[in-house]
Write a structure and sequence with these properties.
This protein folds into four domains: about 110 residues, Immunoglobulin-like; about 130 residues, Tetratricopeptide repeat domain (Serine Threonine Protein Phosphatase 5, Tetratricopeptide repeat, Alpha Horseshoe); about 140 residues, Immunoglobulin-like (Sandwich); about 260 residues, Alpha Horseshoe (Serine Threonine Protein Phosphatase 5, Tetratricopeptide repeat). Helices cover about 50% and strands about 20% of the residues. A hairpin with an 8-residue loop joins strand 19 and strand 20. Helix 7 runs antiparallel to helix 8 and helix 19 packs antiparallel against helix 20.
Length: about 725
């Protein structure tokens, strides 16, 4: 008889959540806390770097932030400098290894700001993900979930765990992680039923009745909008015992077009999501479950150049000021809509004005005077508004985008936008409806200057410095290689080879110039070349280039990665002893993050040799493989390969018919290493061991778990046959 249940319909909104700080390697004891005077000096230096960054002087900004770290090693402000450096390396230069080092430095216990620590933890894991070190990424992301269980960073952690498993082809585990994205919300967020226009609307249905549905059947959900669109969303059954169904549909601003697979919405629209529950716990049938979701837009204010494509940090007197606000809330009609904003002009307060304000606020009790009175000035806003001008922005042909241009004139005339060099101009827009709850003020700022912004822009675009130009070419080659890798992942080998050839051409063009420049630039060129050669399967060239790197740059931060690539080449050629020698060398590098990787691959080399050896020699090689995997667990517990190594050890016990010890290891893997590879194989062998120990009901449960969790596994059909046999036997 069909089991009756109450169904629960959840709507999960696609929101880009703030990222948290990553779980770093065990850090040395924190340095003694710096003094207030040190903090103040470090903060001023940090702000000087920020000012350089604002006007586009990125290289100088990086130098200043690095000096904060070097000159003030005890100050809490150094953690902010680490994060600024890390963000630049991750987002701008995509140097994941260097970025990770700065994130790890900001994630230590000595950082008193938990929010920054959380951000650093997550970003550390992100760096590992971008470097394709998924095992270590999983470890860090699990730490984020454990250390910050109530934070929204948990969503991002599950997201990267899911993506990592997807990259590895572990689709069931990818779904298991991704289905948790959006469920780990704070109490406040869970009350918000909103979707951002243009983002995907995710739907999750929890209904015990799904357990009886046949494999592959879809659950239909109907989405209708207040403005008249209507779409059917198929939801796929996922999760254990098939109690949950997931689905989603893209949303876009525009006129309704029913049943086209896209949900067209308007600002302020309401989406009604309806699911028909065939059988409820109250013994009723075909009950409709309704969830309503409000369409909102996250506002964004920008001051741009004349093309509205690039944000600017300087507004030129006598030239038009171009303003843009993006907000889907105000696209409410088929025609062009308008929104209201405000342009404010500020000047810097004089020293006397700041001192007077400080004295008044201390006297009123608003500020408490401490031993360091000067430090309290940082709580005083250094700007004062001199005038404000209301503006109306008109919607463009692109829905939800509002723009206007108005002249910025010198002087102080009434009724027009005016300013003086050195003043700050600010676009202010009140975003009343967004994914959060309370209204937010969205702003954009620029500094008023005299001259010609066009000339400034051209000057910054033209690269006159030869070394900077070469660096740009190396980054171009890096980007082309990454594109090629993505093509290769999807089996588009012809397109991948084209991108690798382009990247190789770029590197070969600049190689002679890089040799002339020497130093870091030549080192990075060598690194990029051997990565390209390895991706193209040009193993001799890859080996030669990595050896050149080792010879010319023995202290390079890429040494362990180069040695790992050399070992991979030898292993691919079945020169296993040479590969083991190289992997062993990596395990002896004291500061390498790849030591656990090297140790794991030693075991795989011995295992590969054992499979081709004669019986007696094979047994000895398997024993060496087992000991190598055991050392991963014992010597490198923070390695992302621990789960895989333990799984290999369990398989070894099974081959030795030591079933009790194998069961102990299997249970350890399943409880402590949820992201280990080969979990389908582990469940299969776990069931076989339980069967051998005459624990047949438990064995059946493990085989059924394999079938439910890994239906795409090659051994799932065999597990299904065993389950059927156990059923017939009464187990």
């Amino acid at each position: 008889m069909q089991k009756m249940s109450n169904s629960l319909l959840f709507i999960i909104l696609s929101v880009v959540l703030a990222l948290p700080l990553p779980a770093a390697e065990p850090a040395p004891p924190a340095a003694e806390r710096g003094s207030i005077i040190e903090d103040r000096a470090a903060r001023k230096l940090l702000q000087a770097g920020d000012a350089r960054r604002e006007v586009g002087e990125n290289e100088k900004a990086l130098e200043i932030w690095e000096s904060v770290v070097e000159r003030y090693p005890r100050s809490q402000v150094r953690f902010d400098a680490h994060l600024r450096l890390a963000d630049h390396l991750l987002k701008e230069t995509r140097d994941y290894d260097k970025a990770r080092l700065h994130y790890e430095a900001a994630a230590v216990e000595g950082n008193e700001n938990d929010e920054r620590r959380a951000y650093a933890y997550l970003k550390t894991g992100t760096c590992y993900y971008e470097s394709a070190n998924y095992g270590k990424c999983f470890t860090i992301m699990r730490d984020v979930i454990e250390r910050f269980p109530a934070s929204t960073q948990v969503n991002e952690a599950y997201y990267y765990i899911g993506l990592g498993h997807f990259k590895l082809g572990h689709y069931s585990r990818a779904i298991e992680a991704l289905e948790k994205v959006g469920t780990a919300l704070s109490i406040e967020d869970s009350k918000i039923d909103k979707v951002e226009a243009g983002k995907r609307l995710h739907i999750k249905i929890d209904d015990q009745d799904f357990a009886i549905l046949p494999v592959g059947e879809q659950v239909k959900v109907r989405c209708t909008t207040q403005s008249g669109d209507e779409e059917t969303v198929p939801c796929e059954l996922v999760g254990r015992n098939a109690r949950m169904a997931l689905g989603g549909i893209a949303t876009t601003l525009g006129p309704r077009a029913p049943n086209n697979g896209v949900l067209e919405v308007r600002g302020g629209d309401t989406v009604s999501v309806t699911y028909t529950d065939a059988h409820t716990a109250g013994k009723t049938f075909d009950q409709k479950r309704l969830k309503e979701v409000v369409v909102v837009g996250n506002g964004l204010a920008r001051i741009t150049d004349g093309s509205y494509q690039r944000e600017i940090q300087a507004a030129v007197l006598g030239k038009p000021l171009h303003l843009q606000v993006s907000d889907a809330d105000h696209d409410t009609t088929p025609g062009p809509d308008t929104i209201a904003a405000e342009v404010q002009v500020f000047r810097r307060k004089t020293t006397d004005e700041i001192d007077d304000e400080l004295a008044k606020r201390v006297a009123s009790g608003e500020l408490t005077e401490g031993a360091d009175g000067e430090d309290m000035k940082q709580q005083i806003d250094p700007l004062v508004m001199v005038r404000s001008t209301p503006v109306t922005l008109r919607e463009t042909a692109q829905a939800g985008i509002f723009r206007c241009a108005l002249p910025l004139r010198p002087g102080t005339a009434e009724g027009t936008l005016t300013g003086e060099p050195g003043q700050t101009i600010r676009l202010v827009y009140l975003d009343e409806r967004h994914l959060g709850q309370s209204p937010l003020v969205r702003t954009a700022e620029a500094r008023i200057i005299e001259g010609n912004l066009g000339e400034v822009r051209v000057t910054r675009t033209d690269i006159s410095d030869e070394e900077l130009a070469l660096k740009t070419r190396v980054r171009t080659a890096t980007a082309l290689t990454e594109v090629g890798n993505h093509y290769k992942e999807f089996g588009l080998n012809a397109k991948a080879d084209l991108k690798y050839t382009e990247a190789l051409g770029v590197c070969e063009e600049i190689l002679e110039q890089a040799r002339g420049a020497g130093g870091k630039l030549l080192e990075e060129t060598y690194v990029q070349l051997w990565r390209i050669y390895f991706a193209m399967d040009e193993l001799d060239l890859a080996l030669g280039m990595s050896r050149r790197l080792l010879a010319e740059f023995p202290a390079s931060a890429f040494i362990d990665e180069a040695m790992l690539q050399q070992a991979h080449v030898e292993r691919k050629r079945e020169n296993h002893l040479r590969a083991i020698s190289l992997y062993t060398s990596i395990t002896k590098l004291p500061n390498s993050k790849l030591r656990g990787e090297g140790q794991f691959y030693i075991g795989e080399c011995y295992e590969a040799m054992a499979l081709k050896a004669v019986a007696e020699q094979s047994s000895q090689l398997f024993e060496k493989a087992f000991l190598a995997y055991q050392q991963v667990y014992e010597k490198f517990p923070d390695s992302g390969r621990v789960g895989d190594a333990v799984a290999k050890m369990a398989a070894f016990y099974y081959q030795k018919e030591d079933y009790k010890r194998a069961v102990d290891v299997f249970e350890n893997v399943l409880s402590d290493h949820p992201d280990a590879n080969f979990l389908d194989v582990i469940l299969f062998n776990y069931g076989r061991c339980l069967y051998k120990l005459d624990r047949k009901p438990e064995a059946r449960r493990r085989f059924e778990q394999l079938i439910n969790d890994y239906p795409e596994s090659a051994i799932a059909p065999e597990a299904n046959k065993i389950v059927e046999a156990l059923k017939k036997a009464g187990f």
